[in-house]
């Protein structure tokens, strides 16, 4: 099935429903959005782009982005969304690797200079409308290039199968969607956040692209207050900025429905503060490009149930396997581990990618016996709650003991003067590795004070041996801390 059938169907059922807005301005109802997608598809066809061809989108968030994306699908092509913050050379690499026939971009000159040979256009023209092109459920629909915190990004092949199940998973596990519901897009549409517009098109609800094209806390709160029943995806760093803004402005945010957070660790201290300052609007997801939106979910009913036994423990978890996925914790030999033991988090089901684009070896390493090996280490409790410990490659071994940096980070973040922290290992002749904490302080704090703080909270052997106070942590374009860069910094320290 081609996903564009959703748009075609909803436009026939509810042509006048609001579909797309830019800030507070409505730009299309469903009839107009479907007509635009059909015209884009006709234009692509006339430009010689055939069903199955890849069409890249290298542009910031804008309503045009969604019109083009649906046009690409209407034409039976596969979209290759590329983060607009990437360097032209990085984007050029992705366009080449995907073998894109055409790229929509505002940065044509830079891409040309970076060696891109395919057709480059800022927008599509108007072609003859034709019916939605038929596609199979496993035909590629979205090549999702991983954020590449190490090495070259890999192209995750998502077909309409994964996108349909991800959408059903949203409705079943995150929140129902209907007329009058609104999805804001402060996070890049090219990445996981972009998938959140799908349930809103499927159900004929409104997608809103902020005018700034990015994340601005005041703008997000303003749009929620304007449109009401507003939901959005926010990475943990964005949640922190929302909380800071709400605290500074002293206003209780209005018009919020659901804030979906995930994509990186949310520390307990931070989510507790977010609940206190912003209110009971949060749902957590844990997924990855290879199994998007989502592998597990922690629903708001559980997040808000403070009276439940082990509430804090649950809040620190990433919740249950969502209905459309199975989760299993496995050891290095692929054996399923019992409750409570930590191992690699594996996922199975129709949300798992078809494979990596033109990389059979990487696919075979990632999917074994039908299970996707996520590279994350976690453990499951007797009630099925999954707690993530870390990425397997971030695990430290000091004096023969495993140390999960996240646990040390959680402890340090409960100190009032610690704004951000990231923990890595440093090679050490005596211990194998020792723990080093990079700290962004928000007050006058010393290494000795942090050491005393850790002594009260975690085992002695997990305490950082060194503290490095920095103005900011190195992050990639998605706001994820680059531990590889910290390790390089540490090797020079
Ligand atoms: P990406 O494919 O770039 O979205 O990155 C996916 C990775 O982000 C996962 O494999 C996890 O390591 C991390 N991640 C995603 N969601 C969460 C979460 N809720 N808590 C902790 N880490 C997460």
Please give a structural write-up:
The chain is an alpha/beta fold and 493 residues long. The chain folds into two domains: 4-380, ANL, N-terminal domain (Rossmann fold); 396-492, ANL, C-terminal domain (GMP Synthetase, Chain A, domain 3), CATH 3.30.300. Helices cover 32% and strands 27% of the residues. The protein is built from 17 helices and 26 strands. The strands form six sheets. The protein has a nine-stranded mixed β-sheet, with helices on both faces. Strands 16, 17, 19, 20 and 21 form a five-stranded antiparallel β-sheet that branches. 51% of the residues are buried. The model has no long low-confidence stretch (mean pLDDT 95). The structure holds adenosine monophosphate. Adenosine monophosphate (AMP) binds next to strand 13, strand 20 and strand 21. The site of adenosine monophosphate has 19 residues, from strand 13, strand 20 and strand 21.
Labels describing this entry:
27% strand, nine-stranded mixed beta sheet, 493 residues, globular, 2 domains, alpha/beta, 32% helix, binds adenosine monophosphate, Rossmann fold, GMP Synthetase, Chain A, domain 3, five-stranded antiparallel beta sheet
Put the structure in a nutshell.
This protein is of the alpha/beta class. The chain has 17 helices and 26 strands.
Quickly give the CATH architecture of the largest domain.
3-Layer(aba) Sandwich
Class derived from helix and strand content = alpha/beta
Largest sheet: 9 strands, mixed
**What is the class of the largest domain in the CATH system?**
Alpha Beta
The first-to-last residue Cα distance is 55 Å
- How helical, in percent, are the residues? 25-40%
- Average pLDDT value? 95
């Amino acid at each position: 099935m081609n996903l564009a059938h959703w748009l075609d169907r909803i436009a026939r059922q509810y042509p006048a429903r609001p579909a797309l807005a830019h800030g507070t301005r409505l730009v299309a109802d469903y009839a107009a959005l479907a007509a635009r997608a059909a015209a884009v598809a006709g234009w692509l066809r006339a430009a010689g782009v055939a069903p199955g061809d890849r069409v890249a989108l290298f542009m910031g968030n804008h309503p045009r982005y969604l019109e083009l994306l649906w046009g690409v699908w209407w034409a039976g092509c596969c979209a290759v969304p590329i983060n607009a913050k990437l360097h032209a050379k990085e984007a050029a690499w992705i366009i080449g690797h995907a073998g894109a026939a055409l790229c929509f971009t505002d940065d044509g000159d830079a891409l040309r200079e970076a060696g891109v040979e395919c057709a480059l256009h800022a927008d599509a023209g108007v072609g003859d409308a034709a019916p939605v092109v038929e596609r199979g459920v496993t035909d590629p629909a979205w090549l999702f290039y991983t954020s590449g915190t190490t090495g070259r990004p890999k192209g995750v092949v998502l077909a309409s199968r994964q996108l349909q199940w991800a959408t059903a998973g949203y409705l079943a596990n995150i929140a129902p969607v209907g007329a009058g519901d609104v999805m804001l897009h402060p996070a890049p549409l090219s990445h996981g956040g972009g998938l959140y517009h799908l349930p809103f098109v499927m159900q004929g609800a409104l997608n809103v692209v902020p005018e700034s094209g990015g994340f601005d806390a005041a703008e997000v709160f303003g749009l929620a207050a304007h449109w009401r029943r507003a939901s959005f995806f926010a990475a943990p760093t964005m949640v922190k900025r929302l909380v800071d803004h709400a605290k500074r402005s002293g206003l209780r945010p209005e018009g919020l429905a659901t804030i979906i957070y995930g994509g990186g660790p949310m520390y307990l201290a931070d989510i507790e503060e977010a609940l206190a300052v912003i209110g009971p609007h949060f749902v957590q997801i844990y997924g990855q490009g290879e199994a998007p939106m989502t592998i597990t979910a922690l629903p708001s009913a559980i997040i808000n149930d403070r009276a439940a036994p082990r509430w804090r423990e649950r809040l620190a978890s990433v919740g249950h396997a969502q209905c459309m996925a199975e989760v299993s914790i496995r050891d290095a030999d692929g054996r399923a581990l019992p409750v409570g033991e930590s191992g690699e988090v594996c996922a199975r089901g129709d949300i798992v990618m078809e494979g990596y684009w033109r990389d059979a070896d990487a696919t075979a390493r990632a999917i074994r016996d039908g299970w996707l090996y996520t590279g994350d280490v976690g453990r499951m409790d007797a009630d099925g709650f999954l707690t993530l410990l870390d990425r397997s490659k971030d695990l430290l071994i000091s004096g023969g003991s495993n140390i999960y940096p996240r646990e040390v980070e959680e402890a340090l973040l409960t100190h009032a003067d610690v704004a951000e922290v990231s923990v890595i290992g440093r090679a050490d002749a005596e211990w194998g590795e020792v723990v080093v904490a990079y700290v962004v302080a928000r007050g006058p704090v010393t290494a000795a004070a942090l050491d005393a703080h850790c002594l009260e909270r975690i085992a002695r052997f997990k305490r950082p041996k060194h503290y490095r106070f920095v103005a900011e942590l190195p992050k990639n374009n998605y706001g994820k801390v680059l531990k590889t860069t910290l390790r390089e910094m540490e090797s020079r320290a």
